[in-house]
Amino acid sequence: MRLILLGAPGAGKGTQATFICQKYGIPQISTGDMLRAAVKAGTPLGLAAKQVMDAGGLVSDDIIIGLVKDRIAQPDCANGFLFDGFPRTIPQAEALREAGIKLDVVLEIDVPFEAIIERMSGRRVHPASGRTYHILYNPPKVPGKDDVTGEDLIQRDDDKEETVRKRLEVYATQTRPLVDYYRRWAEQDPTNAPRYRRISGLGTVEEITRRVFEALES
Ligand code: AP5
Ligand code: ZN
Q1: How far is C-alpha 10 from the geometric centre of its chain's CA atoms?
Q2: What angle do CA 107, 109, 113 make, to 5 degrees?
Q3: What spacing in Å lies between the alpha carbon of 179 and ligand 1's midpoint?
Q4: pLDDT digits (tens, 9 = 90+) for 44-65
Q5: Phi first, then psi: what are they for 104, rounded to 5°?
Q6: Cα separation of 106 and 84, whole Å?
Q7: For residues 125 and 157, what is the distance between their CA atoms, to the nearest angstrom?
Q8: What whole-number distance in Å separates Cα of residue 144 and Cα of residue 122?
Q9: 205 CB-contact burial (10 Å; exposed 0-12 / middle 13-18 / buried 19+)
Q10: How many Å lie between the centroid of ligand 1 and the Cα of residue 33?
Q11: For a Cys staple, 207 with which of 20, 109, 113, 203, CB 3.0–4.6 Å?
C-alpha cells in the first residue's frame, strides 16, 4: 500500500497514520517529523528549517523533494509507505508524479478550521517517535508521559495560536489546491492515478479510524 494522507494542520494525519501503518506494515513518512529531527540534531537543514517552521511557512520544495526521494529509496519502503504532510504544494505533487512513483490512494481528512485551534492547543508529542496525544481527546495514560517509553511529552513550538493561524492560511493557499489536483487526475486517468477518498475528521479518534479503513478498503 502506497498512500498520501492529505489534510490541514491538526486534521489528525499523524494520529491516524499510526493505525494505518500498523495495519499495513508500512513506514510513516512524515516530512514534519523529519524536519523536527533535523532541528533537534542541529544540522544545517534543521537550522534553516526551524525559522520557517516557527513562522508557520513552508520549507522549500527542492529540499523537501530531496529528503523524500532519499527516504523512499530505503529498503523498508519496498512494500509501500504512507506520506503524512507530503506533498504539500503542486510542485511537490508534480515531482512525485514525474518520478513515476505510483500511488494507490490519496485520503483526505477534512476538519473545519474552527475545530483545529482547540486540537492544536491541547496537543502533546513524544519527539523521538512522533506519537501524538491530546490532553482532553486522546490523553496519555500518565499525564505528560509517553505511553510506550514513559519519556516526557512536549508541546510543539509551532502550536502557538498565532502560528497555527498562519499555518492554516498557508494550507488554504498552497496545499488545498492538491484536492482538485488529485480529484481531477483520478477522474481523467483512473488507471494511473491514485484513488481519491475523502472522509470527515470530526468525531472521536476511534470513529475516524473506522472511516479511514472503510475508505481505504473501498
Ligand atoms: P507537519 O508536522 O506536517 O504539520 P501539519 O501538517 O501542520 O500537521 P500537524 O502535524 O500539525 O497535524 P496532524 O494532521 O498530524 O494532526 P495530529 O494527528 O497531530 O509540518 C510542520 C511544519 O513542517 C510545516 O508547517 C512546514 O513548515 C514544515 N513542512 C512539513 N512538511 C512539509 C512539506 N512537505 N513541504 C514544506 N514544508 C513542510 O492531531 C492534532 C491534535 O488533535 C493532537 O493533539 C491529536 O491528539 C488531536 N486529535 C487527533 N484526532 C482527533 C479527534 N478525532 N478528535 C479530537 N482530537 C483529535
Ligand atoms: Zn502531524
Answers
A1: 9
A2: 150
A3: 17
A4: 999 999 999 999 999 999 999 9
A5: -85, -45
A6: 11
A7: 11
A8: 12
A9: middle
A10: 10
A11: 203
Which of ligand 1's atoms lies nearest the C-alpha of 208? 53
* pLDDT over threshold 90, residue 160: no
| pTM beyond 0.90, yes or no | yes
Residue with cell 533537534: 40
Residue type, 190: P
Residue 202 CA, closest ligand 1 atom number? 53
Q: Which residue has the higher pLDDT, 147 or 218?
A: 147
What's the CA gap between 141 and 139, in Å, rounded?
Answer: 6
> Which residues are annotated binding-site positions?
10-15, 31, 36, 57-59, 85-88, 92, 123, 132-133, 156, 167, 203
Task: Quote ipTM for the complex.
Answer: 0.97
User: Which is nearest to 33 in space by CA: 11, 4, 64?
Assistant: 64
Phi/psi region, residue 130 (left: phi>0; alpha: psi -120 to 50; beta: rest), is left
Mean pLDDT of 80-95: 98
pLDDT (tens digit per residue) in 109-156: 999 988 998 899 899 999 999 899 999 999 999 999 999 999 999 999
Among the atoms of ligand 1, which is closest to the Cα of residue 89?
35
When pLDDT is cut at 50, 70 and 90, the band that residue 161 belongs to is confident
Structural domains of the chain, with CATH: 2-111+175-217 (3.40.50.300)
Q: Is the pLDDT of residue 175 over 90?
A: yes
